[in-house]
Amino acid sequence: MKSEFSEEEAAMPAMAQESPCTRVIAVTSGKGGVGKTNVVANLAIGLARVGKRVLVLDADLGLGNIDVLLGLVPRYTLEHVLCGSHRLSDIIIQGPAGIAVLPAGSGLPQLTSLTDSQQLILQSELEQVADTVEVLLIDTGAGVSPNVTFFAAAAQETIVVISPEPTSLTDAYALMKVLCRQHRERRFKVLVNMVKSQREATQTFRKLDVAAERFLNVSLEYLGFIPLDDYLPMAVIEQKAVVERFPCSPASRAFVQLAKKVAEWPDPQLPKSTVQFLWQQLIPMS
Ligand SMILES: Nc1ncnc2c1ncn2[C@@H]1O[C@H](COP(=O)(O)OP(=O)(O)OP(=O)(O)O)[C@@H](O)[C@H]1O
Ligand SMILES: [Mg+2]
Question: What's the gap in Å between 37 CA and the centre of ligand 2?
Answer without folding.
Answer: 4
